[in-house]
Amino acid sequence: MTLVAMKPIYNPPNPYESLHRDWLEPPPSVKLQIFEDDSRSVLSRNESPDLSFRWSVNPYRGCFHACAYCYARPSHEYLGFGAGTDFESKLVVKRDAAVLLREAFLKPSWQGELVVFSGNTDCYQPLEAAWGLTRACLEVCAEFRNPVGVITKAVLILRDLDVLRRLNDEAAVRVYFSIPFADNETARRVEPQAPSITKRLAALKALADAGIPTGVSIAPVIPGLNDDHMFQILQQAREAGARTAFYSLLRLPGSVEPVFLERMTAAFPDRIKKISHRLQEVRGGMLTNNRFFERHTGQGTYGEMIEQLFVAAKARAGFAETPEIPLPSTFRRPAPQQTSLF
Description:
By secondary structure, the protein is α/β, with parallel strands linked by helices. It has a single domain (33-317), classed as TIM Barrel, CATH 3.20.20.70. Helices cover 33% and strands 13% of the residues. The chain contains eleven helices and ten strands. The strands form two sheets. Strands 2-3-6-7-8-9-10 form a seven-stranded mixed β-sheet. A three-stranded mixed β-sheet has the order 1-5-4. Strand 7, helix 5 and strand 8 form a beta-alpha-beta unit. Helix 4 (133-143) packs parallel to helix 5 (161-170). It is globular, with a radius of gyration of 20 Å. It starts with 32 loop residues before the first strand and ends in a 25-residue tail after the last helix.
């Protein structure tokens, strides 16, 4: 795993801690730390009514990709960490993830619903190269023929092409690549440690060429920054073999807002006022809207324009107009092995 230099430590105050620490001297440089999680379950139940899945698996907490906009940052505060540099440097691994997933699938109550990797942080971030937790969980899903959805930015997913093929042949699988920018330069400023857009498109093509159903996620759309990237992203993804596409508007829950504003001000000092103004324009005067069924899309004239732009760009790029068909239920428990008497 190749590590890159990171900025000095910066975390907004943790609302779950009673104490707040300020550095008297310049903050030290960030060092990568790995922690092990002793969770007794690995399936996370989604209670949000505006999401299309109920269950997800997150083998890792925190994410090395360090995307400025990541909505999962506040989840790190529940662990006593910060939502800023702690989120991308103090990473947590669920070493027993595959064992726990198998136990969940063996319970009579499990009926074989779609499981999404990952609903929180990228399941193929660099840690996966050493720990292999995502692959082990996918192998469990293949054994039980449980339908799987994957959302990632990482090229490492190509390592598991054999498991994805098995899932596609014997169960059901769909892989989405998160590609919110049309060029590598913009992406690097906002997603400093994620694979380049060029590499993501190449990985998408490799999966599509192998027969794996793929899609593209333009998430998040940041008004004033990448809303005009939509057609180019969709065109490139379609040419690479993506079958479906969706977008989601930027949202800044909790501590994500100060992290995002601090990093975007540093990366785009000449555009931050425009970005903030556009966000307020599509969020009713606020920078974010956390209401269900409103948080992923914009309101007002500009919000409607973004929706129309996506629909038009999607059609122009050659994506089908028909809605995406839900993955079928293919789950079955393996027959228990019989012990020979002789």
